[in-house]
Amino acid sequence: MCVPTSACFDLFIEPAGLESWLCEKANVEARTGGLRELFWEPDDPQNNSTVGCRITTYDRDRVSAFQWRSPKQFKSFANAADPLTHVVVDFHGNSNVTSMAKPFARFAPKVDRRSVRSISRIGTALNETRNAQGGAANL
User: Fold this and answer.
1) Candidates 3.30.530.20, 1.10.10.10, 3.40.225.10, 3.40.1000.10; correct CATH number of 5-132?
2) Beta-carbon neighbour count of residue 137 at 10 Å?
3) What is the pLDDT of residues 61-111, one digit of tens each?
4) Domain boundaries, given as residue ranges, for the chain
């Protein structure tokens, strides 16, 4: 995509970036071990959120790895699993162009693989956001 790596990374780590395309509200501590809580229904934080999830790897402009909670339709079996689903996003590029590896998820035990669709929507949402801003994205 024709944006600097830092700008692309911010869409995944900064609350304002996440709120621009993925969730209604974000509470993120940009560091390994920091919170990475995303809320699709802020008035119901125990459902449709990643409440309590943590960043497992933080390397500015290179990689973001984090725990993930599934939507409420999968909550009964996915969100009680230990360990939780784990997502890794790799960023490669320079000050002008970024390529992003499609997000990789290791699912928690007994997670219905259909929930991968919600994770794969990240690339689609980024493309739509970039295209709406007049640029071309290719994830």
Assistant:
1) 3.30.530.20
2) 19
3) 999 999 999 888 888 777 877 888 888 888 888 777 777 766 666 665 554
4) 5-132
